[in-house]
Design goal:
single chain; mainly alpha; 3 helices; rod-shaped
Length: about 80
């Protein structure tokens, strides 16, 4: 199982916020692979699930921010600041 699962939750969240969307999705895939392994304990499985949910929420938030920036693209091709 991945070593990241054993980090404290706040360290996982901080590290995940620095990851690219693609890296976060790869980590989610690894968590799914870890959860499908024989011999994984319920506690380990639940830790993977929790981390996966946090990563999915962060990915969704980043995608939403990108979508909002794209929507703000003006007719002349400039991008207005989004707040």
């Amino acid at each position: 199982m991945s070593e990241e699962v054993k980090k404290p939750a706040e360290e996982q969240t901080e590290a995940a916020s620095e990851m690219s969307i693609e890296a976060s999705l790869e980590e989610i895939q690894q968590l799914l692979n870890d959860m499908s392994q024989d011999g994984i304990t319920l506690e380990e499985s639940f830790a993977c699930y929790e981390k996966g949910i946090r990563l999915l929420r962060q990915v969704n938030e980043r995608i939403d921010r990108v979508e909002k920036k794209v929507q703000m693209l003006t007719e002349d091709g400039t991008l207005e600041a989004f707040e």
